[in-house]
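User: Here's a chain of 212 residues. Predict its fold as tokens.
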Amino acid sequence: MYCPPLFAANDPAECYALMRAHPLAHLVRLQGGSLAADAVVLWPDAEEGVLRGHVARANPLSTCDGAEVLAIFGADDAYVSPGWLPGKAEHGRVVPTWNYRVVHAHGRLRVVDDAAWLRAQMAALTEAQEGALGANWQVGDAPADFIAAMLKAVVGVEIAISTLEGKDKLSQNRGAAERAGIRQGLAARGDAASAAVAAAMDRIEADQGERS
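Assistant: Prediction complete.
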């Protein structure tokens, strides 16, 4: 991933936090001489350094045991208008850009065809997601024969992470007045993604202030 040092965000704790908050990854591999990708929910285990998920048994990914893969996790992103920058009125030499956060996890794929493993993986994922909703649905709430049939229709995937790269492109290369204008513009849009990007910019500035 191209990442100027100013945008590097390689702290493992922050990378794992982003992956947990946005677990739907694009899983890329080379298959049959061509690049292929699937959207797969991958739940990170920081202690073991792995990602775990499952895919339909019919998915060609289920035949890729041992393949080198890249899982791409994206957080909220937002368009940045040049109209939000003081330079638009001062000299006009401004252009649009995009602010975003992303994590790339590289590793080797292991296909797991084991019902007990799959049930444990599904239970862990469900617990995390239901807990965030304040709900209490559990895998065991569904009829046992139904769950057994669902387990037969999928295989597990586990990726031992070899390299973890994070990138936060959040206007760190701009001056204080420009960043203030961007945050104001994001706030005015009023959508959740823009608010999340503005909050991430605030955290970056707070971290920089603590280090200075």
